[in-house]
Design brief:
The structure holds 2 protein chains of 2 kinds.
Chain A lengths: L7 H26 L3 E3 L3 E6 L13 E11 L3 E8 H12 L12 H26 L3 E3 L3 E6 H13 L4 E6 L2 E3 L2 E3 L1 E7 L1 H10 L5
Antiparallel strand pairs in A: 1-8, 2-7, 3-4, 3-5, 3-6, 4-10, 7-10, 8-9
Helix pairs in contact in A: 1-3, 2-3
Chain B lengths: L3 E3 L4 E6 L3 E7 L3 E6 L5 E7 L17 H14 L8 E6 L15 H15 L4 E6 L5 E6 L4 E5 L6 E2 L1
Parallel strand pairs in B: 1-3, 6-7
Antiparallel strand pairs in B: 2-5, 3-8, 4-5, 4-6, 8-9, 9-10
Classes of the chains: A alpha+beta, B alpha+beta.
C-alpha cells in the first residue's frame, strides 16, 4: 500500500485520533507519575524506512522501545520509542533511583516499569481508536527492547516491508513541566485496517 | 581520501578500496558482505525479509534475501569478480523482542539468516564467518585491506570476524 495516496482528510482523521489517544494517555501517565504531564499536538508523518531512526537521532542512537501487537478489526503493531536518557529519567522518577552515564543496564524492575508506561500509552491510544470507530481492537502483552534505534525499529519495518516501503508515524510529543520528553508513538497497520477505520468514521475511500 | 560507504536498509552497494563499507543497526535484518581474496572491491547487502516469493509487494529486490543476493552477485560479476572465488561474511538476524504470546514475527531473524545461507549455498559461495542470532542489534563495517568484518553492539566490546 502507499500512504502517499492518503488524502489530507484521512491524515487529519489519523491526527485527530492521535490527539485524543495521546490526550488520554497523557492523563493516565500523569496520574501514574504524580506530575504534570502535557502533550503537544501530534504530527502525522509519512516517511521512508531509512528516515524513521532519524526521529531519535539516528540508527545508532540507543533507545528503549515497547512494542505491542494488536488484532481484531484493526490489526498491526504499535511502538512507544524513547531515547535512552529519557528512559532513564522516566524510570528514575517512577522508581526513585538514578542511573549512571552512558548505556544503562536496566534490571527487570526497570524494564517492567518502562513496559507499563508504554502499555498505558499504547492501550489508551488503541482504545480511543476503538471507542471512536466502534471497531474491535485486542492488544497482546507488550515486549521491551533497549538497543540501537536501527535494530529495534527493523521489526516494525519488516512488518511494513511486507506491504510497502513507507511508514506512517504518529509523533506524539510529551512535555514534563515544559521539558519535552523525546519519544514518539509509531502506529503500524495494514490497508484493510485503515479502510475499516475510515469507513467506520464515514470517510469515503 | 578513503570514504565510508553507507548501505541503507533494504539496499546493497559496492565498495572499492581504500573505502570501507558499513550498515548501521541490524536487528532482525541480515547484512551480507561478498568479497574475494584478490579483488579490491566488495559488496554489502542489508536485507529485511527472507523470500521475495512469499510477498506480493516485492518490487524492491534488495529487501529480500534471495533476490538481494542474486542482484548483488550479478553486479559483482559484471565488475569482474569470479563467482568461484567469492566468499561471504554475514551478521544480524537477531530476535530483538521477546514476546510471551505467539508471534511468527519473532522468528523473522532466523528465517532471514536461513534464507541467506540457502541462497549462498545455491551459489556455492562459502560463509567464512558469521555473527548471527541472539537478542541484540549490530552495526557492521567491512575493511578491504584486512577483509575483516567489524561487528559493533551497544554496550559490548567490538568484534572482528
Amino acid at each position: 500500500m502507499n500512504y502517499q495516496d492518503f488524502t489530507s482528510e484521512k491524515l487529519d482523521v489519523l491526527r485527530e485520533i492521535g490527539n485524543i489517544g495521546a490526550g488520554n494517555a497523557t492523563t493516565s501517565l500523569s496520574v501514574l507519575l504524580h506530575n504534570d504531564l502535557r502533550m503537544e499536538m501530534p504530527i502525522v508523518k509519512i516517511m521512508s524506512f531509512d528516515e524513521v531512526p532519524e526521529m531519535v537521532g539516528g540508527a545508532e542512537t540507543v533507545v528503549a522501545a515497547v512494542l505491542t501487537h494488536f488484532t481484531g478489526d484493526v490489526t498491526g503493531m504499535i511502538l512507544f520509542v524513547l531515547e535512552l536518557e529519557e528512559a532513564k529519567n522516566l524510570v528514575g522518577s517512577m522508581l526513585h533511583k538514578t542511573f549512571d552515564e552512558g548505556l544503562a543496564h536496566f534490571d527487570d524492575m526497570d524494564k517492567s516499569a518502562l513496559k507499563e508506561v508504554g502499555n498505558i500509552l499504547m492501550s489508551s491510544y488503541l482504545s480511543s481508536i476503538s471507542t471512536l470507530t466502534n471497531l474491535e481492537v485486542h492488544t497482546e502483552p507488550p515486549a521491551i527492547c533497549v538497543d540501537m534505534a536501527g535494530s529495534v525499529l527493523d521489526l516494525p519495518l519488516i512488518e511494513l516491508g511486507q506491504i510497502g516501503d513507507n511508514a506512517l508515524i504518529i509523533d506524539s510529543k510529551f512535555l514534563d513541566k515544559d521539558e519535552p520528553i523525546d519519544g514518539f508513538l509509531m502506529f503500524v497497520s495494514d490497508e484493510e485496517s485503515y479502510d475499516h477505520i475510515f469507513k467506520a468514521l464515514g470517510i469515503r475511500c | 581520501m578513503a570514504e565510508i560507504i553507507k548501505v541503507g536498509i533494504a539496499d546493497w552497494k559496492l565498495c572499492n578500496a581504500p573505502d570501507t563499507i558499513t550498515t548501521i543497526g541490524l536487528g532482525s535484518c541480515v547484512g551480507v558482505v561478498i568479497y574475494t581474496l584478490n579483488d579490491s572491491f566488495c559488496g554489502m547487502l542489508h536485507i529485511m525479509l527472507p523470500s521475495s516469493k512469499e510477498i506480493k509487494n516485492n518490487s524492491n529486490r534488495a529487501k529480500f534475501a534471495d533476490t538481494g543476493v542474486e542482484d548483488m552477485v550479478a553486479a559483482l560479476e559484471k565488475k569482474g569478480m569470479r563467482r568461484a572465488s567469492m566468499k561471504a561474511k554475514i551478521a544480524g538476524g537477531a530476535k530483538m523482542f521477546q514476546f510471551s504470546g505467539k508471534s511468527e514475527l519473532g522468528t523473522v531473524g532466523d528465517r532471514n539468516v536461513n534464507c541467506v545461507k540457502e541462497k549462498l549455498k545455491e551459489y556455492k559461495i562459502p560463509i567464512v564467518s558469521e555473527d548471527c542470532g541472539a537478542d541484540f542489534g549490530r552495526t557492521i563495517s567491512f575493511d578491504l585491506s584486512t577483509r575483516m568484518l567489524q561487528v559493533r553492539c551497544a554496550g559490548k566490546p567490538d568484534k572482528q570476524i
